[in-house]
Amino acid sequence: MPIPADEDPLVCIVDSGVVSGHPFLMNWVIEERDFDTGEDTPTDLNGHGTSVAGLVVYGDIAKCIESRNWQPKVKICSAKVLCHDAIWQRPVIPEQHRAEKLIEDAIRYFWKDRSCQIFNLSIENSVEVYRGGRKFPWAEKLDELARELDIVIVQIAGNRDNPPLPEKVYSNPI
């Protein structure tokens, strides 16, 4: 496995943490930090953040497996903002926090401390699904941060386990 160079791009994964000792991520996780999730560890206890980090570092994992060519593309910082929910068996925002504040703290920290310019949020707010009209606090905060800090924030649009949206919502796709 190659060792990262100073000029390699840096991406901050804002998620459930990362298992930095994973053989395919070792040396590519530059810094990891727990943002008061209550788990007292920056390590991923759920697996979601580690999976996301693998996709960000390597791209198409199926192609890597098929070609047996594993070439890391970016260095990673891990901002743990999700904790593992034992009942739902998935990562969630800790109950004592507002999602947008926790995410803002994480983004500002890695922007200031590591000069990170690219942030990946493969997390969603399934309670606040956009259906036209005014945007929600989470989206508004991400827009503000992107403009103020001159950063790129990659935010997912949803997950495959979500219930399907009504036909009229996506009948005229882009």
Automatic annotation (TrEMBL):
One of its GO terms (molecular function) is serine-type endopeptidase activity. SUPFAM superfamilies: Subtilisin-like. GO terms for biological process: proteolysis. PROSITE patterns: SUBTILASE (PS51892). Residues 8-163 form the Peptidase S8/S53 domain. Gene3D superfamilies: Peptidase S8/S53 domain (3.40.50.200). Keywords: Hydrolase, Protease, Serine protease. Coiled coil: none annotated. Pfam families: Peptidase_S8. Transmembrane segments: none annotated. Belongs to the peptidase S8 family. This is Peptidase S8/S53 domain-containing protein. It comes from Coleofasciculus chthonoplastes PCC 7420. The lineage of its organism: Bacteria, Bacillati, Cyanobacteriota, Cyanophyceae, Coleofasciculales.
